[in-house]
Design a protein that fits this description.
About 50% of the residues lie in helices and about 10% in strands. The chain is of the alpha+beta class. Strands 1, 2, 3, 4, 5, 6 and 7 form a seven-stranded mixed beta sheet that branches. A two-stranded antiparallel ribbon has the order 8-9. Helix 4 crosses helix 18, helix 5 packs antiparallel against helix 6 and helix 5 runs antiparallel to helix 15. The protein is elongated and about 90 Å long. The two termini are about 20 Å apart. The mean pLDDT is about 95.
Length: about 425
């Protein structure tokens, strides 16, 4: 229960009685210090008054005081500045590397806090804190949602930075890979990322004014111009229509010219996938975006409102794909534009995180602030996570709120990390007297 002791100390959820050290000296906690998530003492720069004397230094916390020796702190100079050792059970004196005996506090976890924590951890219903959500103050909810929004964007920024590194520090290429991954809409996201990383954009740029050649490279690199990638019932039709063979021939020429190697077509998933989400359609849409210079980071940065952002990502397909969902498979004529639902998701999950990450990279606060304005202007996502929280009593107004709640579920609820959650804090302190 050491994590719970950390929590009780950090939030000063102490029993309502005078605090005394183990040698009966009066103790006042003025500042619990800065929680250290890395190696070293648990809290830095704490302020405590012991028997009238103010001490400023570090605090270490253990379930049992003897854990001090188990963890080797008596041989580690980093613990010489510990001014207070806190333990759930004090079963021994402690000794620093330089020979001092830090004062100790045996800290009891209030029974109400312990009981509430066990309720959260053991609850079968999801989320376990649902009981108190209707009673939360609007100010508290707004503050926590804002923090979660930022946390989610920061998390996505790290992922984008990793992609940029894989693209030899090219932010333009990193944006294309990020855009491509999200064109997979979850099911084919990994395959789309591998596909995008296989495309040498600096070479493709030489053919950017030719949509046919772009589509040949894009389809070829996806492995979809391999006849084995076409289902057997459609192979003869694909050959007889001509377009498949034309693309195939063009790709063979360009692949030889640029030394291209396609990804394995078996990476693509089709099971329970709606035809409009088939990789052929999504790749055709991306080819059109690229051809129109709309898959460009410089164009993205110039968007100053949601309308411009939507127009930038809006795309269609070439004539062949208006009547096909895959090679040889004929469908009713359909423009196959991105749906408003898909467009909304691309703005939320691609464009906005990319702007935020690039703003962080350039240390451009205006660009970062713009992302929060966009989230406020966009409609909230309608998925099972958002509906779950709405059923619990939380109001979801916009995409910023829905992104915050996705972050809350993924990073806190699913991990039962209630001790880092502000709603968890409100739950834990219930009934404390």
């Amino acid at each position: 229960m050491e994590k719970l002791l950390h929590y009780v100390w950090k939030h000063k959820l102490f029993p309502l009685k005078a605090l005394l050290t183990t040698n009966s000296l009066p103790l006042e906690v003025i500042d619990t210090g800065l929680h250290n998530q890395n190696a070293g003492p648990d809290f830095f720069n704490a302020k405590v008054r012991i028997d009238g004397t103010l001490w400023v230094g570090n605090v270490e916390i253990h379930d049992r005081s003897s854990d001090w020796f188990t963890h080797g702190h008596d041989k580690d100079a980093n613990y010489n500045n510990v001014v207070l050792h806190v333990a759930g059970i004090v079963d021994s004196e402690v000794l620093t590397e330089d020979g001092k005996h830090p004062p100790q506090l045996q800290l009891e976890v209030p029974e109400s806090v312990r009981s509430n924590y066990e309720e959260l951890i053991k609850a079968d219903q999801y989320p376990p804190c649902y009981k108190i959500i209707p009673s939360l103050s609007k100010l508290m909810v707004h503050s926590w949602m804002s923090a979660l929004q930022t946390e989610r964007l920061e998390q996505k920024t790290e992922t984008i930075k990793q992609r940029v590194t894989r693209c030899e520090d090219s932010w333009e290429a990193g944006y294309f890979v990020t855009l491509a991954r999200n064109f997979g809409f979850g099911i084919n996201g990994e395959a789309f990322e591998q596909w995008a990383l296989s495309i040498p954009l600096h070479e493709v740029d030489h053919h950017r004014d030719n949509i046919f050649q772009i589509e040949a490279i894009f389809m070829g690199q996806a492995g979809l111009l391999d006849i084995e990638a076409v289902p057997k019932p459609y192979r003869d039709t694909a050959r007889s229509e001509g377009y498949f063979t034309e693309l195939q021939n063009e790709y063979h020429y360009l692949a030889h010219k640029f030394g291209l190697h396609p990804i394995d077509h078996k990476l693509w998933r089709f099971l329970r996938l709606r035809p409009q989400n088939f990789p052929h359609i999504r790749i055709a849409q991306l080819a059109n975006l690229y051809y129109q210079h709309k898959a460009s980071l410089s164009q993205l940065v110039e968007c100053t409102d949601v309308k411009a952002l939507g127009e930038l990502l809006r795309t269609e397909v070439t004539p062949y794909w208006e009547t096909h969902y895959s090679f040889g498979s004929v469908s009713e004529k359909n423009a196959k534009r991105l749906s408003l639902f898909s467009l909304n998701l691309l703005m939320i999950n691609t464009a906005i995180p990319m702007l935020f990450a690039y703003g962080r990279h350039r240390q451009d606060d205006e660009l970062c602030d713009r992302t929060f304005e966009f989230l406020e202007q966009l409609k909230a996502e309608n998925n099972h996570i958002v509906r779950l929280w709405e059923d619990c009593g939380l109001t979801v107004k916009d995409a910023g709120d829905s992104q915050a709640l996705i972050q809350l579920k993924n990073e806190y609820c699913d991990r039962r990390d209630c001790l880092r959650c502000r709603i968890g804090y409100e739950y834990l302190k219930r009934g404390q007297k």
